[in-house]
Design the sequence.
């Protein structure tokens, strides 16, 4: 029961529109959407320090001001979203 209460409290704190995290995420989401509506580039640029990342075998290391974290998240997302499609093409 105690763990359930803590989980609910945490969920309300993090996911609430008045919580500590939600408003920042929502603001960032809206700003990205507004930016993508502009007449600027058709691409969302994530190339800061591209090619300077170090392959450490089990992980990559990049500069703190780079976009490595975003690139790896989108790479993982693409793999998750196309996994079944690739399996069907191989079969």
Sequence:
């Amino acid at each position: 029961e105690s763990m359930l209460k803590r989980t609910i409290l945490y969920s309300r704190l993090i996911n609430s529109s008045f919580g500590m995290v939600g408003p920042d995420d929502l603001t960032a989401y809206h700003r990205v959407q507004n930016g993508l509506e502009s007449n600027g580039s058709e691409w969302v640029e994530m190339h800061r320090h591209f090619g300077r990342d170090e392959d450490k075998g089990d992980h990559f290391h990049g500069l703190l001001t780079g976009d490595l974290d975003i690139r790896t998240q989108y790479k993982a997302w693409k793999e998750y979203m196309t996994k079944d499609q690739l399996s069907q093409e191989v079969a």
About this structure: The chain has a mean pLDDT of 81.
